[in-house]
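hey can u check if this looks right to u? its 81 residues, i copy pasted from the old doc so theres a chance i mangled smth
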Amino acid sequence: MLVQALMKEVTNIQVMGDSQLVIDWLKNKRPPKNIHLRPIYEEALLLAIAFKNISYKNIYRERNVESNKLSKQGLLTDIEL
């Protein structure tokens, strides 16, 4: 999703996810212990620095349906900033 946002020249973004652990990884609080996840983690961090402003928010699982719908809608919509 970050790649698509960059392709649309988005400069400010809020990343929402239903895993507090992943959100903490992305906030660079702690890297994943699983070495197989580290390349994905490192790629996400590299993509994040391309944004002027990026924030992260944990969305509890019961609200994840709405979050998923909004993320898909964002990919299909031209965003004006």
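The longest strand covers residues 12-17.
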